[in-house]
UniProtKB/TrEMBL annotation, chains A, B:
Gene3D superfamilies: NADH Oxidase
Name the record gives this protein: 5,6-dimethylbenzimidazole synthase
InterPro entries membership: BluB, Nitroreductase, Nitroreductase-like, Nitroreductase/BluB
Domain Nitroreductase: 21-184
Species of provenance: Ruegeria sp. PrR005
Gene Ontology MF, one: 5,6-dimethylbenzimidazole synthase activity
NCBIfam families (UniProt xref): BluB
Entry keyword set: Oxidoreductase
EC number: 1.13.11.79
Gene field: bluB
Length: 211, 211
């Protein structure tokens, strides 16, 4: 049992942390200190997980062949995505930088073990996707912990997940949640890169309906 | 553009915030100040979302019939879940308190609009589940913001999501991500309730494989 009251100053800083957390695609190539990375990875163990199932599975992608397979996968999926747009939208899409895979010093592939026995299935009977959602909460904490150290994370989802699962030789019961580029960002901002590039704008407020 | 370096003290406090964030099922019935709740809900707008799609959709469940429908839904799903266990495990499951729906002053049902045009599909072609994951990142930020105010959140996933979608009369393209109980926790802790109840223990460390 631990009681604790957080201060107004902490809440202000935490709000700033959320505002400065960005999806980063432009990285410096400087290495990331392993001790800092390890400290940030501890955030995974503090995440909520359905039934305490801790279904996150992490692969650090370091070898040249594994990185090349992931990059090829992205390039193919991105070319397919581009082919799905036309006119101005296609031109705009073609100009976007959607992954930092060629510069980021650290690459992580994060999976969900849908077949884990841990947690004895609690909370995942009617909504088995809760295991995957647990992994996403862990990634979110990790992302904030990285930003608190000045590090950036980029979430690559323009990938064929089944192909990556095969290429990285992980169990077939593992589902890819995301491929992550990690390193020192070239710049910091409180505005999403897609908004700065004119792709989309955020809504001015959160809508809440009542029942 | 905004540069900012977070302090060691902030990082220590942020680590504590993650450690004290719990899935809360035991609430005091005191009301939650609307201004505090609104401040915490702002966290949704700071979440990452694939293609800037902002696919989160929130329903505040306040009416007696809507709350009764959600509670009935939970009770039925929980009875089904209990029937799936046997022996000691069933006894243990039966003793767990798995939702604070009868006490929590604020109830929110959070959905993902899988059909939104916002974001023009960017990043969601090969992994359309990224929209749902975006909603989960927003919930995670909201959860931390609540805890920074001393408030607790409980994520109820023992529900038939399709039934709740119908009962709350939301569009069929909205997928339930979770039903949330929110209020002042009866107690605070740095240990998950399921671990304290002996249901499951967390692994001693995070395993990372390399490829």
């Amino acid at each position: 049992m631990r009681d604790h009251t957080f201060s107004d100053d902490f809440r202000t800083q935490f709000d700033l942390l959320m505002r400065l957390r960005r999806d980063v695609r432009r990285f410096r190539t400087d290495p990331v200190d392993e001790a800092v990375l390890a400290r940030c990875l501890d955030a995974f163990r503090l995440a909520p997980s359905v039934g305490l199932s801790e279904p996150w599975r992490l692969i650090r992608v370091t070898s040249a062949p594994a990185r090349a397979a992931a990059l090829d996968n992205f390039l193919a999926a991105n070319a397919d995505a581009l082919a799905g747009y036309s006119g101005d939208r296609a031109q705009q899409y073609g100009r976007l930088k959607l992954s930092g895979m060629q510069d980021a010093p650290v690459h992580l592939a994060v999976f969900c073990d849908d077949a884990t026995d841990q947690g004895h299935g609690l909370g995942a009977a009617t909504m088995p996707e809760m295991r995957r959602y647990s992994v996403v909460t862990a990634i979110t904490l990790f992302w904030l912990a990285l930003r608190a150290e000045g590090l950036g994370l980029g979430w690559v989802s323009i990938l064929d997940p089944d192909r990556l699962t095969r290429d990285l030789d992980v169990p077939a019961t593992w589902r890819l949640i995301g491929y992550f580029c990690l390193g020192w960002p070239e710049e910091t901002s409180d505005t999403p890169e897609l908004e700065r590039a004119g792709w989309e704008t955020r809504r001015p407020q959160l809508a809440i309906e009542t029942r």
